[in-house]
């Protein structure tokens, strides 16, 4: 079973930046979709950014132009660079891996991001 470990959350002022990193315990296939979702209390978890099975990227409209997703295939990691952070970006961010061959979704434990002055 793949394990996902996130790092990089924390407290940042509005307009600031943070980089989240997710490391997978196994080699990730290029067909798998690896990315980030976030959740605030009382709301559904929403997809923020991900690599698709075709190798392209998806970014939610709310983060386009501010967030960038990147990956290092050799290290089995996916990073989320978050710039110009807003208070509404405050959430627990979860790394997500979709194994498209097995049809299984894996989640990390989550990392808190708080944007506040």
Notes on the protein architecture:
It is a single chain. This protein is mainly β and 117 residues long. Helices cover 0% and strands 51% of the residues. It is built from no helices and eleven strands. Strands 2, 4, 5, 6, 9, 10 and 11 form a seven-stranded mixed β-sheet that branches. A four-stranded antiparallel β-sheet has the order 1-3-8-7, with no helix packed on it. The radius of gyration is 13 Å and the shape is globular. The protein starts with a strand and ends with a strand.
What is the element layout, followed by pairings?
Blueprint (H helix, E strand, L loop, with lengths): L3 E4 L2 E3 L5 E7 L8 E7 L6 E6 L5 E3 L7 E6 L4 E6 L8 E9 L4 E4 L3 E5 L2
Parallel strand pairs: 2-11
Antiparallel strand pairs: 1-3, 3-8, 4-5, 4-9, 5-6, 7-8, 9-10, 9-11
